[in-house]
């Protein structure tokens, strides 16, 4: 009897302490609220998709799985996403794959120019890339949830670009090692600017050309400084969503299933949103006075040669695995 009283008193005490903890906000987050870090804005293409992913997951799990979004690199800036996730600064993280090439060389396939020319190509590349990326990340204690592409990368400029020489000496905004190499080969000056600071860099006159998607042009209202857009469709880079394996393994089997289910539906929705944004954003650029120009044959030839050079450089630097991946991309479905 007294034994029972003691244990029920202990339960009461535990309950009271838990309630007090909740009132005082200790711990700051409930144990099952996960932090999702991203380097992009909440209202961006990917940000909106992540918001829906979090909402859907909360709904599917009847509130048991909650995710708070930490945007604009405030919790983890893009260059720190991988080490930050590995050391547990967030449970989930989203980063552009071409920014992870130091640790994840095969992610660099995303920005080898003129290999992926359509969303169908991009899907095919991801099918061949995914198992290799998954294996690499698993060895770092991370699990892949999904990848969603940005719309195709086009060329923006303040001045008309008729041939490669017109880019000489321009201040080209860069965001990964490929764009840096392109600037170098074109004898332009590479200026590293994170996506969320593009508008500011333009206003300050630090950049006058860049390769990125039309949607990034729209989100940063680049028509204030850039007047020409050439849809060169250079590549379709993807954002990757990862979860810490340790956090994932703490979920019960049912919750794990819900998380994977929400990720599959977010991935499908993300690809649809991206394709839609690709169509609409070029029109928005036009509507805001930008000239959407066809690529001259001179520029197209120069870009093709540049693409061949970069493909070779990439395969050589990454090694046989890169070669193998491209062979299966080109020869299989
Ligand atoms: N926007 C991002 C990455 C690719 C894109 O279309 C950026 O410009 O940084």
From TrEMBL:
This is TRAP transporter substrate-binding protein. It comes from the Bacteria. CDD domains: PBP2_TRAP_BpDctp6_7. InterPro entries: DctP_fam, TAT_signal, TRAP_DctP_sf. Keywords: Signal. PROSITE patterns: TAT. It comes from Pseudaquabacterium terrae. Signal peptide: none annotated.
């Amino acid at each position: 009897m007294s034994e029972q009283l003691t244990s029920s008193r202990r339960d009461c005490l535990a309950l009271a302490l838990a309630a007090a903890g909740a009132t005082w906000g200790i711990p700051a987050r409930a144990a099952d609220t996960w932090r999702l870090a991203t380097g992009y804005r909440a209202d961006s293409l990917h940000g909106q998709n992540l918001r829906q992913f979090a909402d859907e997951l909360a709904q599917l799990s009847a509130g048991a799985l909650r995710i708070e979004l930490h945007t604009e690199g405030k919790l983890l800036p893009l260059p720190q996403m991988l080490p930050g996730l590995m050391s547990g600064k967030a449970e989930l993280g989203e980063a552009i794959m071409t920014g992870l090439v130091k640790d994840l060389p095969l992610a660099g396939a995303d920005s080898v120019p003129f290999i992926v020319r359509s969303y169908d190509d991009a899907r095919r590349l991801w099918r061949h890339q995914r198992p290799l990326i998954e294996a690499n990340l698993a060895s770092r204690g991370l699990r892949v949830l999904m990848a969603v592409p940005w719309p195709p990368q086009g060329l923006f400029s303040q001045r008309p670009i008729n041939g490669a020489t017109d880019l000489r000496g321009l201040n080209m905004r860069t965001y990964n090692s490929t764009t840096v190499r392109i600037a170098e080969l074109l004898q332009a000056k590479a200026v590293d600017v994170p996506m969320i600071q593009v508008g500011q860099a333009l206003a300050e006159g630090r950049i006058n050309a860049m390769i990125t998607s039309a949607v990034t042009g729209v989100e940063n209202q680049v028509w204030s400084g850039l007047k020409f857009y050439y849809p060169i469709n250079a590549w379709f880079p993807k954002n990757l969503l990862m979860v810490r394996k340790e956090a994932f393994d703490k979920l019960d089997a049912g919750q794990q299933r819900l998380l994977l289910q929400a990720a599959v539906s977010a991935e499908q929705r993300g690809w649809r949103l991206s394709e839609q944004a690709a169509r609409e954003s070029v029109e928005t650029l036009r509507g805001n006075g930008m000239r959407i120009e066809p690529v001259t044959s001179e520029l197209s030839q120069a870009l093709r040669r540049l693409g061949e050079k970069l493909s070779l450089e990439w395969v050589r630097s990454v090694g046989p695995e890169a070669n193998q991946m491209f062979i299966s991309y080109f020869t299989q479905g």
